[in-house]
Design a protein that fits this description.
The protein is 30% helix and 30% strand. The chain is built from 7 helices and 8 strands; from the N terminus they run αββαααβββαβαββα.
């Protein structure tokens, strides 16, 4: 275990430690949100195995039993600027366990990023989805990205409600059971920041391909 911890202390180039934060979810558990790292691949694979078929379908629009192996390196290797992913994790006896992932990727439209979000089933409904969404949008804003796009299954009421309550939606259109939204980050007041930070000291069934 000490060797494992020591190995994780070496940050990849450009790793933005300023994005690491501790949050308190609704049922009183303290979690950590931080940028993803290349050495998260094993944890991400384990995270996928804990997702229900329904959550996998809502995230990838296909009920994958196992994701293609070649996807994982791309998931964990980001440039922390144009491509960024944040993970939520909790410490346990066997080490840190990933509970959720939020990311943004560039699109064909200049200045617009696509946002994706997924939370482990047993942690949905506890405010973690909102905290991850706020964190990824905040990080994007500091990198000059202010407009976003997301695709969600039209019957995924939880993610559609989360977006309606958290962002300012500019447009929404539905075709063949998929709702595409464009939106901007909603300005937050001090009370919203307190809610988001929780115990800060430093999926939600989700959409999006």
């Amino acid at each position: 275990m000490p060797a494992r911890r020591a190995a994780r202390e070496v940050d990849p180039p450009g790793y933005p430690r300023d994005l690491i934060r501790t949050v308190l979810v609704d049922w009183g558990t303290t979690l950590r949100i931080r940028p993803i790292r290349p050495d998260d691949e094993a944890g991400l694979r384990a995270f996928f195995t804990r997702l229900s078929t329904r959550t996998v379908f809502q995230r990838f629009f296909r009920a994958w039993r196992q994701l293609p192996d070649e996807w994982y390196p791309r998931f964990v290797q980001v440039d922390y600027a144009q491509r960024l992913a944040l993970v939520a994790e909790v410490d346990g006896a066997d080490g840190a366990r990933l509970l959720g992932v939020a990311r943004y990727e560039p699109t064909d439209t200049d200045g617009v990023a696509e946002v994706a979000l997924v939370v482990e089933d047993s942690w949905q409904g506890q405010g973690l989805g909102r905290r991850l969404l706020e964190a990824i949008l905040d990080a994007a804003a500091t990198r000059g990205i202010h407009r976003f796009r997301a695709d969600a299954l039209s019957d995924n009421r939880r993610i559609l409600r989360l977006l309606a309550e958290t962002v300012s939606i500019e447009s929404s259109s539905t075709e063949q059971g998929v709702t595409e939204l464009t939106f901007v980050r909603r300005p937050r007041g001090p009370s919203d920041d307190d809610y988001f930070r929780g115990a800060t000291t430093t999926s939600v069934g989700e959409p999006l391909r």
